[in-house]
Amino acid sequence: MYRLGLIGEAVEQSKSPDIHHHLLNEAGLTGQYHLFSIKPTQIEETLNQMRDGGFKGFNVTVPYKEAIIPYLDRLEDSAAVMQSVNTVNIKDGELVGYNTDGVGYVESLYRTYPNWYQHRHENTVLVLGAGGAAKGVIHALLKHQINKVIVANRTYTKAETLAQQFDGVEAISMNQVDDVKPHVDLILNTTRVGMTPNDHELVISLDRVPDHVIISDIIYQPTWTPLLKEAKERGHCLLFGESMLYYQAVKAFEIWTNES
Predict the structure, then answer these.
(1) Is there a catalytic annotation at residue 143?
(2) Binding site: residue ranges?
(3) Would you say residue 28 has pLDDT above 90?
(4) With 50 as the cut, is the pLDDT of residue 260 above it?
(5) Cα–Cα distance for residue pair 4/126, rounded to 1 Å
(6) Which residue among 14, 160, 165, 256 is least enclosed by CB atoms within 10 Å?
(7) Residue 245 near residue 19 (C-beta atoms within 8 A)
(8) How far is it, in rounded angstroms, from Cα 45 to Cα 200?
(9) CATH assignment of 102-244?
(10) Rounded to whole angstroms, how far apart are CA atoms 73 and 94?
(11) 259 falls in which pLDDT band (50, 70, 90)?
(12) May I ask the CATH class of domain 2-99?
C-alpha cells in the first residue's frame, strides 16, 4: 500500500492525484495520493505526520519548494544544485529531497519531439524567466548537452546571477529578446505570465521567430496560454505544460516505487 501526497498552498485543484493513481494502476500497485493544503507554520507537523503515518513519499509545490529544505535530512544532486525540492522520498525514516522538474521537462521534450532532441547538440534554447523553474530546466538541459541556453529576464541582474551558475548560459534582458529570436530553436516560458491573474498577457511577441522554432510553456492551468495560442496561429510546434507535469510525476513515481 503506497501512501503518497502533495504539500502546497491551495492544492485542491491539483491534477497530481489523477496522474499518480493512473501510474499506480498501470504498475499494478495499490495506493492513495492525498492533498495537503497547509500554512508555513504547519510544515514540520505535516512531515512528522507523513513519516509516522507510513507515507512512502510526497510532492511539494509552491510556495514550499525552498521552505521545506531545512526540514529534510538530505538533498540529492539536482535538488542541491537548484536549492528547490518538488519530490521527497521517505525511507527508513529519512526524508530525502529531489527535484524532478528539469528531468521531467527534458523527458517531455524527448517524447514529443525526438528528432529535435536528437539534434540537441546543435540547438539553442531561449528560456524566459530566471526563477526556480528556469534553474531546474536549465540544469537538466545542460546535463543533456544542449548546444546553448540563453536566459532572459525582466530584471537583467537576476538572469545574470542564474547564468553565472552554469557554463554555456548567456544572460540577456527582455529588451534584447528580439535580437536573439532569429537564432534559437526552442523558446520556453517559465514565468507566471499567462497564468491567472495574468492569463491574458503575452510574455513576448513571436514576430521574427522562425517557423521551425518550438514554442513551450511550463504553465498547465490554463492549458492554452496566450503564448501557445499565438504560436498555434503562426504554425509553430507546441510543447504544453501538462506534458512536463506528467513526466516530472513519472520521475517522482519511479523514485518512490523503483518502477522503471
Answers:
(1) no
(2) 14-16, 61, 77, 86, 101, 129-133, 153-158, 218, 220, 241, 248
(3) yes
(4) no
(5) 35
(6) 165
(7) yes
(8) 39
(9) 3.40.50.720
(10) 6
(11) low
(12) alpha beta
In this structure, what C-alpha cell is assigned to residue 192? 507566471
By the 8 A CB rule, do 43 and 67 touch?
yes
Q: What is the average pLDDT value for the chain, to the nearest integer?
A: 95
- Binding site residue list for shikimate: 14-16, 61, 86, 101, 220, 248
pLDDT in tens, 94-143: 999 999 999 999 999 999 999 999 999 999 999 999 988 899 999 999 99
- Please give the grid coordinates belonging to residue 99: 527535484
Choose, from 65, 135, 181, 251, the residue flagged as catalytic: 65
Strands 94-98 and 87-91, bridge-based pairing = antiparallel
Check: CB of residue 2 under 8 Å from CB of residue 30: yes
Cβ atoms of residues 231 and 252 within 8 Å: no
Set of cell numbers at residue 12: 485542491
Type of residue found at 64: Y
Domain boundaries, given as residue ranges, for the chain: 2-99, 102-244
Distance of CA 217 to the CA centre of its chain: 10
Q: What is the pLDDT of residues 176-209, one digit of tens each?
A: 999 999 999 999 999 999 988 888 999 999 999 9
